[in-house]
Amino acid sequence: MSDTLDSLLAEARARFLAAHIGEAALDARVLIGGLLDLPAVKLMTHGSDPVSAEDAARIRAAITRRAAHEPVHRILGWREFYGLTLAMSKDTLEPRPDSEMIVDGLVPFAQDMVAAKGSCRMLDLGTGTGAICLALLSAVAGASGVGSDIAAGAVETARENAARNGLENRFTGVESDWFAAIEGSFDIIVSNPPYIRTDVVASLAPEVRDHDPDVALDGGADGLDAYRIIAAQARRHLNADGIVGVEIGYDQMQAVSALFEEMGFLAFEQVRDLGGNDRAILFRPQGSADRTSG
Length: 294
Description:
By secondary structure, the protein is of the alpha/beta class. It has two domains: 5-76, Ubiquitin-associated (UBA) domain (Helicase, Ruva Protein, domain 3, Orthogonal Bundle), CATH 1.10.8; 80-285, Rossmann fold (3-Layer(aba) Sandwich). It has twelve helices and nine strands. It has helices spanning 5-18, 24-36, 40-45, 53-67, 72-76, 100-117, 131-139, 152-164, 198-201, 206-209, 225-233, 253-262; strands at 78-81, 84-87, 120-125, 143-149, 171-175, 186-191, 238-247, 265-272, 278-285. Strands 5-4-3-6-7-9-8 form a seven-stranded mixed sheet, with helices on both faces. β8 and β9 (278-285) form a beta hairpin. α6 packs across α7 (131-139) and α11 runs parallel beside α12. It is elongated, with a radius of gyration of 21 Å. The N and C termini lie far apart (61 Å).
């Protein structure tokens, strides 16, 4: 008896439930749909369709990987983010939907800057896949961006993602340890830096701990190392009317705000994620014009 979509979905759900994977049914649909390039509606309405032996073998190999707690999108090799299809590599974080919130928060300011002076130059520190920078470029015509990362492999992945999404003419990838190799000034500086305390990293879910790069997770003893660097050095690369946006851990709003205020910044907007937790803070230099979006 040949395998069908329904039988393979049932097999995947059972394996994932046995492995204590929380969203077993959803993961089964996303994994198999992604492997076969099938939309969700076809998985539901064509469940009796036969699956070739070759495809069934690919699917079972992927099921085994997911049952070992490798993330679905790591197995697929790509993830959708802000309407873009982004490839991932071992040097990059997996882009997550909550990071779309900082993009939403920054888009109006980027649009205002383009309207006011015809351009908006952005710097994405620790760009990884390029997700945040490329999402902003896709949303704001007239903007250009530099994506920097300490990992050469991440920079290459970001460049490939720019080309994949038709944004290569407005995106530049730079290998840099934070600001070390960055030249010029920017209207927006943004970062989703490592912010997890060193002593917490080992207790993260295996999907994160074992598959996201440690350098993108470990924020030092108090989780704030990267924020200290960005707060201390951002002013010299920020235009007078520019803004800085950083993602934060859910409990870091006060600590990160205090670090930036010590360095001459004013927090003027807080961004919450899909679960209602603090997700990002937008800063402007103290004493700069109060730029309001819209």
